[in-house]
Amino acid sequence: MTINLETPKKFRVLQEQAHQVATEVLRPISRKYDQAEHAYPKELDMLAALIDGMNESGSSSGAGASGVRQSRSTETGNRNGSNMSSAIGVMETCWGDVGLVLSMPRQGLGNAAIAAVANDEQLERYEGRWAAMAITEPEAGSDSAAIRTTAEVDGDEYVLNGEKIYVTAGERAELVVVWASLDRSQGRAAIKSFVVERSNPGLILDRLEHKLGIRASDTAAFRLEDCRVPKDDLLGSPDIDTKKSFAGAMQTFDNTRPLVAAMAVGVARASLEFTQERLAEADVEVDYDRPAHSQSAAAATLLELEADWEAAQLLMMEAAWMADNSKPNSLHASMAKAKAGRACVDISLRCIELCGSVGYDESELLEKWARDAKILDIFEGTQQIQQLIIARLLLGKTSAQLR
Ligand SMILES: Cc1cc2nc3c(=O)[nH]c(=O)nc-3n(C[C@H](O)[C@H](O)[C@H](O)COP(=O)(O)OP(=O)(O)OC[C@H]3O[C@@H](n4cnc5c(N)ncnc54)[C@H](O)[C@@H]3O)c2cc1C
Questions:
Q1: Which helix (H) or strand (E) holds 111?
Q2: Around 2, how many Cα atoms within 13 Å sit in the side-chain half-sphere?
Q3: 70: CA distance to ligand 1 center in Å?
Q4: Residue 1 pLDDT exceeds 50
Q5: Percent of the chain whose predicted confidence (pLDDT) is above 90
Q6: Residue nearest to atom 31 of ligand 1 (CA)
Q7: Structure confidence by residue, pLDDT tens digits, 5-26
Q8: Which atom of ligand 1 is nearest to the CA of 110?
Q9: How many CB atoms lie within 10 A of CB 202?
């Protein structure tokens, strides 16, 4: 028996529009920007303007990352809000091309961070601006509490010093949300996020990376040298509250992990559909009414992969739904990210197996999707880190007790 979680009725138009964009705009330029790494996908400017228009007209409550904000509503009942619409929009567009979606103006992961933790005044001030997210450093990847970038108060400003690597959309975005410590002796509680203008002379672009996948997306490395940021650009509270620990900054992940899961679900769906078509051409019949073990090996494999995909999709939808319904979703956000990240890599590689040489060949996009998939199991917390978080939350252990 399969469970089908339907797209909420009010988001069906959004889903259709996003799918159309993926088919008509993203797929046709997908290979071009995979090959022209670091070239700016100018076609996206028009598309981003269209998304802005959809958001302004209210026909969508958030087609991209900027729409995610944990609901603070005390209303009871079932809500499908901007977390769900963003997840659906991202899933459908990533069916088109995940690298291009990561390059979509004004829909960066930094926008999700702003949406998740900014106060109302900041939300208004940063509205309509494109923000990247800079947490990772040469000595701090999975262990984000180990970051060394510092922020010292000087009059009405903070002065930031440090190094940030692997910043998605770092070159192209207008703002970079930088994690830095107000006081390294106070540990993780002192880590805050700061919104830095990309044009700030203290934010120095060192290089752009060459990568396995998502080549349409720029990945930047920065140095922060006496980078002065107005005090109003610290997101959330400037107080160091050792009881709440890292909560403010980490809250971002409750909103962004379901989105990364949605990216993975979209890429995996693309691989599955492509494979299903090739199998049909080869006269492999997939019968949904008969047990998999009684069918051909190829059909049974496809059924297994589809079941895995569906489990990932359900977890992703649940995590986004919880965010829209004021339910703490850290556990579910990590479960969705872990499941979808792994499923996406596994599904795309096994689809290559099923398709044979046509799957490996650059004449089709499947080989590209398999390369693009891997990052979705790495950024916003690797597979291993999600499992660690899930174990901590289920067992009631702290990060010091289970590491
Ligand atoms: C293309 C790309 C884009 C990125 N975009 C961004 C971005 O926009 N912003 C940003 O801040 N960062 C970004 N990152 C960085 C990404 O989030 C990190 O690469 C990731 O968090 C892992 O950190 P690391 O690479 O330092 O690996 P490490 O932390 O060194 O981990 C190496 C391996 O060890 C495992 N491991 C680590 N600790 C444990 C543990 N306690 N238990 C079990 N296993 C463990 C990891 O799972 C991993 O497999 C990006 C990275 C890439 C490649």
A1: helix 109-117
A2: 17
A3: 25
A4: no
A5: 79
A6: 142
A7: 678 889 999 999 999 999 999 9
A8: 8
A9: 17
Model pTM above 0.85? yes
Q: Whose alpha carbon is nearest atom 11 of ligand 1?
A: 135
Beta bridge partners of residue 205, listed in sequence order? 222
pLDDT band at 248 (very low <50, low <70, confident <90, very high): low
Compute the distance from residue 142 Cα to the ligand 1 centre, in Å: 5
Spell 134-166 as b/e; 16+ CB within 10 A means b. Answer: bbbbeebbeebbebebbbeeeeebbbbbbbbbb
- State how far the Cα of 98 lies from the Cα of 216, in Å rounded to an integer: 9
Q: Which residues line ligand 1 (CB under 6 A)?
A: 109, 133-136, 141-142, 166-168, 211, 214, 219, 375, 378-379, 382, 384-385, 388, 403
CA of 387 to the centre of ligand 1 (A): 14
Which atom from ligand 1 is nearest to the alpha carbon of 179? 11
For residue range 92-106, list pLDDT tens digits in order: 999 999 999 999 998
CA of 342 to the centre of ligand 1 (A): 15
137-155: pLDDT as tens digits: 999 999 988 999 999 999 9
CA dihedral sign of residues 240, 145, 219, 105: negative
Find tokens 């174990």 and name the residue: 391
Residue 42 alpha carbon to ligand 1 centre in Å: 29
> Residue 395: exposed, middle, or buried by beta-carbon count in 10 A (0-12, 13-18, 19+)?
exposed
- For residue 140, give the DSSP letter: B
Q: Which residues contact 394 (CB under 8 A, 6 or more apart)?
A: 331
Rounded to the nearest angstrom, the distance between the alpha carbon of 383 and the centre of ligand 1 is 9
Report the atom number in ligand 1 closest to the C-alpha of 140.
26
- DSSP tag of 108: -
Ligand 1 atom, smallest distance to 213 CA:
1
Which amino acid, one-letter code, is at 382? T
Centre of ligand 1 to C-alpha 120, Å, is 31
- Residue to mutate, 111, 136, 224, ligand 1, most ligand atoms under 8 Å from C-beta: 136
On whether the CB atoms of residues 351 and 359 are closer than 8 A, the answer is: yes
Q: How far is CA 80 from the centre of its chain?
A: 19
DSSP state string for 214-251: -TTS-EEEEEEEEEEEEGGGEES--S--TTTTTHHHHH
